[in-house]
Design brief:
The chain is of the alpha+beta class and 405 residues long. It has helices spanning 2-53, 116-151, 157-189, 239-242, 391-401; strands spanning 56-60, 68-85, 91-96, 103-104, 109-114, 192-194, 199-204, 211-212, 223-238, 250-254, 262-275, 280-288, 299-307, 313-316, 320-323, 326-332, 338-342, 344-348, 352-357, 364-367, 380-381. Strand 11 and strand 12 (280-288) form a beta hairpin. Helix 2 packs antiparallel against helix 3. The longest helix has 52 residues, at 2-53. It is rod-shaped.
Length: 405
């Protein structure tokens, strides 16, 4: 039996060795397959991650505005002629004949002032005039008589000259007294407060029995008369738009309390000066108000049709990139890689900006670019944003937002 075991032992060893080799080869294959699979999966993950790292962006070409753009500014209406009426003579108000809202004609009586002091002064001045005239008459007859006696050598030349000089002095006194009477009579005419022109009484600040002080300094106005058939419109235009303001331009007025209604105004003139405190140019326009729909003192929105720069381009404000190197926008190159371009802003229209320089009309500007975007970065265009917004819609949107105030 021991002899049989010794004979079969080498065969069994060879069999076990063969099995071990097969197991080792299988294990090596499994390990190799696992390593290859993991390497392939890692490569796919790396490629997928790299693809996902490419930002998807919306890009469109810049728009262009039309021939004009709307400039909307706040303004206020004022009567074409507005006259506060003060008393010229002191006294007490005897009566008033026109209240607020009354339509009056030029020269129409508005009020009457009692002036007892002035009446007495006029009476005294007339009496002084009569006295001066009497003295003049006596001096004239005396001078005539002495002149006749001088011809007969009855009096000296000196005495005759004295009588003639006295007549001239009396005549000057008469002229002075007459001037005083005329002055007081002119003041007497101011007892009647009349309308200086056709218009509407917009204020009455006195009543019967009020003490009236003369002049516009210490005393307050008695009435205010306004001519509102034509109205003035005052607007403060920013310095950036002042160069485009020319006499003869027209503007459209709109009031919040009259929705849907507009009024045409014509630019009369400007003050040709920039106010330092506000940096604006004061502009005066005229609007017809024969129908009386407009009221002096009203707030209004003034719409100017301003000429535009034909070379200026519109882009969304969200496309701007603020970096330490300056203001930039990102555009998509031909190979779908980003290019950062420095730009300058001509006009800020709110959600739209007018670019003065830095981009071309055919550039594809990226809207809302990633904060980390840099020149050379690959980008992917979003299919849903491939369509470009029309230049007209961009201009209209900018017009709606272009307001200063």
């Amino acid at each position: 039996m021991s002899t049989e075991i010794e004979i079969n032992s080498p065969k069994r060893l060879r069999h076990l060795k063969l099995v071990g080799i097969v197991v080792l080869l299988a294990a090596a294959g499994i390990v190799t397959t696992g390593i290859f699979t993991r390497v392939h999966a890692r490569q796919e993950m790396t490629a997928w991650s790299a693809a996902q790292a490419i930002p998807t962006v919306a890009a469109h070409t810049p728009g262009q505005q039309g021939a004009t753009q709307s400039l909307v500014l706040p303004g206020h209406l004022s009567a074409f002629v507005d006259a506060p009426i003060y008393a010229r003579v002191p006294g007490y108000l005897h009566a008033w004949y026109a209240d607020i809202g009354a339509h009056v004609k030029a020269g129409q009586l508005l009020g009457l002032i009692d002036t007892p002091d002035l009446d007495q002064q006029l009476l005294q001045a007339k009496a002084d005039l009569q006295d001066a005239q009497a003295n003049e008459k006596l001096a004239a007859s005396t001078a005539k008589r002495w002149t006749e006696m001088l011809k007969q050598d009855s009096v000296s030349q000196q005495d005759t000259d004295e009588k003639t000089g006295d007549l001239a002095a009396k005549q000057a006194i008469v002229a002075s007294a007459q001037a005083n009477v005329n002055r007081l009579e002119a003041l007497e005419s101011f007892k009647r407060i009349t309308a200086p022109f056709d218009g509407v009484v917009t204020a009455r600040k006195t009543d019967i029995g009020d003490l009236i002080n003369a002049g516009g300094g210490d005393g307050h106005e008695l009435f205010t008369v306004s001519d509102a058939r034509q109205l003035r419109v005052y607007v403060s235009v920013p310095q950036s738009d002042a160069a485009a303001i020319k006499p003869g331009m027209t503007a459209t007025l709109s009031m919040p309390e009259r929705p849907g209604m507009t009024f045409q105004a014509k630019l009369l003139d400007t003050d040709d000066s920039i106010t330092q405190s506000s940096g604006t140019l004061l502009v005066q326009l005229e609007v017809d108000n024969q129908n009386g729909l407009l009221i002096p003192g009203e707030y209004t929105e003034v719409h100017f049709a301003m000429p535009t720069d034909p070379h200026a381009l519109l882009v969304p404000a969200s496309a701007l990139i603020f970096r330490q190197s300056g203001l930039q926008v990102a555009v998509v190159g031909k190979d779908d890689h980003a290019i950062l371009k420095p730009v300058t802003i001509a006009t800020d229209l709110g959600t739209q900006v007018e670019i003065g320089s830095g981009i071309e009309a055919n550039d594809r500007v990226i809207d809302n670019p990633p904060d980390s975007i840099a020149t050379g970065d690959a980008v992917r265009l979003a299919a849903t944003h491939a369509a470009n917004p029309s230049p007209t819609s961009l201009a209209d949107h900018g017009d709606a937002e272009r307001a200063h105030g």
